[in-house]
Amino acid sequence: MRVIGIESSCDETAVAVYDRTRGLLSHRLFSQVAMHQAYGGVVPELASRDHVRRLLPLVRAALADAGSDQASIDGVAYTAGPGLIGALLVGAGFARSLAYAWNKPALGIHHLEGHLLAPLLEPNAPAFPFLALLVSGGHTQLVDVSSLGRYRILGETLDDAAGEAFDKTAKMLGLPYPGGAALARLAEGGRSGRFVFPRPMLDRPGLEFSFSGLKTAALVALRGRVVDDQTRADVARGFQEAVVDTLAEKSRRGLRATGHRRLVVAGGVGANRKLRERLGLVASESGAELYFPRTEFCTDNGAMIALAGCLRLSAHSAVDRDRQCLAFNARANWPLEDSG
Fold first, then answer.
1. Contact by Cβ (8 Å): 295, 276
2. CA–CA separation, 1 vs 121, rounded Å?
3. How far apart are alpha carbons 340 and 38 in whole angstroms?
4. How far apart are CA 322 and CA 318, in angstroms?
5. What is the spatial distance between Cα 74 and Cα 26, in angstroms, rounded to a whole number?
6. Taking a C-beta distance cutoff of 8 angstroms, is the pair 314, 286 a contact?
7. Three-state SS for 15?
8. Can you tell me the distance from the alpha carbon of 291 to that of 130, in angstroms, rounded to the nearest whole number?
9. What is the DSSP letter of 209?
10. Phi/psi at 125 (nearest 5 deg)?
């Protein structure tokens, strides 16, 4: 089974080829960050138009890197949601058309399922079942992963996700888009303890998250001050410590509630070094193993979509290859639990 995966849910255009036996054969990615920086965030119309320009060259490059052609590809996987609907439609339309021309099955993949499965790209891959901390874009969730397609959300954010709070706080500090990674770098020079922000929802039981108030606390800390470079670094450090403490404690509770001995961290915020260090301690103290993808596969990428498509198509050998059509689905909003 060899699958080509296409990702276009937001501001990265990505293509990869994954082989069930040989693993990841190639992955190509074009980031639109430079284009969107002038606007301080993603402009959906510009993102969609750029996906149109980038997809075909990336597909050709990924196939060449993998030493693959039409005959050796068994299926086409693409991100069907959630995400920016225009960007999703570009990828879905392209993928379905490619599958129709090649007479191959096409499969829409849930974007968050791709992130959940991304650690399986690594040599030391986790086995099912496991607890996943998913911190990607507008999502912060603790997910009980029983097997492929069987996902139960144990807790999620009630307002801003961790990634959104990082980006919005970074903007307050005058950092360029995308701000999460820039805030983490700034926090390295901050002094611990100068700004102590609340740890949202740790004063009550449960596994839900809330980061809107934490973002507001950072805004209040900056208001009325002469904000020099050291103060900005101190605020960044205090903010990051609050987010990391919150995510770590909720993960500890999730391991205790499920009894799982494997903890997976996935999504863009999962690349944060302090979070990885803290979750390593949580896993060790809980008698669990910690798994995460390499940094380049924490953010959006085609490899995770190709992998998910390969696993899905391998698990469902009854896919009817003769009933190809140009109809496709793309969903801006798609609950993870409905992806099975």
1. no
2. 15
3. 39
4. 11
5. 16
6. no
7. strand
8. 10
9. B
10. -90, 145
Would you give the end-to-end CA distance of the chain in angstroms? 20
DSSP state for residue 200 in the 8-state scheme: T
| Contact (CB, 8 A) for 299 and 123 | no
Residue-wise pLDDT tens digits, 62-108: 999 999 999 999 999 999 999 999 999 999 999 999 999 999 999 99
With b for 16 or more beta-carbon neighbours within 10 A and e for fewer, the 106-141 pattern comes to: bbbbbbbbbbbbbbbbeeeebeebbbbbbbbbebbb
Q: If you search the block for the tokens 């005959």, which residue do you land on?
A: 71
- Is the pLDDT at 122 greater than 60? The verdict is yes
Average pLDDT over residues 142-153: 97
pLDDT digits (tens, 9 = 90+) for 234-267: 999 999 999 999 999 999 999 999 999 999 999 9
Q: Positive or negative, the Cα torsion across 320, 321, 323, 324?
A: positive
Share of the chain above pLDDT 70, in %: 97
Q: Are 68 and 17 in contact (CB under 8 A)?
A: yes
Structural tokens at position 164: 């959104």
Nearest CA to 9 out of 270, 268, 290 is that of: 268
* pLDDT band with cut points at 50, 70 and 90 for residue 326: low
Residue 45 CA, chain-centre distance (Å), reads 21
Provide the pLDDT confidence category of residue 113 given band limits of 50, 70 and 90: very high
Which amino acid, 337?
Answer: E
- Determine the Cα–Cα distance for residues 47 and 242; give it in Å rounded to an integer: 32
Q: What is the DSSP code string of 22-41? A: TEEEEEEEEE-HHHHHTTTS
**Rounded distance between C-alpha atoms, residue 218 and residue 101, angstroms:** 53
CB 246 within 8 A of CB 282: no
pTM for the predicted model, two decimal places: 0.94
